[in-house]
Amino acid sequence: MIIPNDTILFEKRENPRIPLEVQVAMNTLQKGPRVFGWMQDISQGGFKVKIDIPLSFKSFFQEGREVSFETFEDFFQLKGRGGIIWTSSDGEIAGVRFDQLGEESRRILDEFLVCFGRDVPPPPLSPIVEIHV
Q1: What is the pTM of this model?
Q2: Domain containing 65 — which CATH number?
Q3: Residue 45: what pLDDT?
């Protein structure tokens, strides 16, 4: 079998992720405690967030839970609602899909993604490596 060696590392996504480190505040829609974390990457579909929280709040990240979120950086202000679609086994990292973004937040997100690589083509494949099975 012949496989280009970059294929193993390059992940094809409908909405490629862009690395990002921005603080985000999150609440459940039931208006529970506000939790702060850090967006680690973002795409048109959502973001990955990491929170350092006490054990008593570990249940904040539950798949299917609806949350509101807001960032406060001057260059990157998003506000909206979404749903937790996956969580790490330790409960500190989660994927949040965008369900609702205001018009201004959508504009900011679109501009950010265009500036930082959403429309950049994938890296060129390196030479083909032959694998003997």
Answers
A1: 0.73
A2: 2.40.10.220
A3: 93
Q: Examine residue 40 and state whether it is found in any structural domain, yes or no.
A: yes
Number of domains in the chain: 1
Express each pLDDT in 79-90 by its tens digit: 999 999 998 887
Q: How far apart are CA 1 and CA 31, in angstroms?
A: 54
In whole angstroms, give the CA distance from residue 50 to residue 26: 11
**DSSP assignments along 40-108, one per residue:** EEE-SSEEEEE----GGGGGG--TT-EEEEEE-BTTB--EEEEEEEEE-TTSSEEEEEEEEE-HHHHHH
Would you say residue 132 lies in a domain?
no
Residue 99 sits in which domain range?
A: 15-117
| 97 within a domain of the structure (yes/no) | yes
For the chain, the residue count is 133
Rounded Cα gap, residues 104 and 93, in angstroms: 27
Judge whether residue 132 has pLDDT over 70.
Answer: no
Residue 55 domain flag: yes
pLDDT for res 12: 52
% pLDDT > 70, the chain: 71
Taking a C-beta distance cutoff of 8 angstroms, is the pair 69, 2 a contact?
no
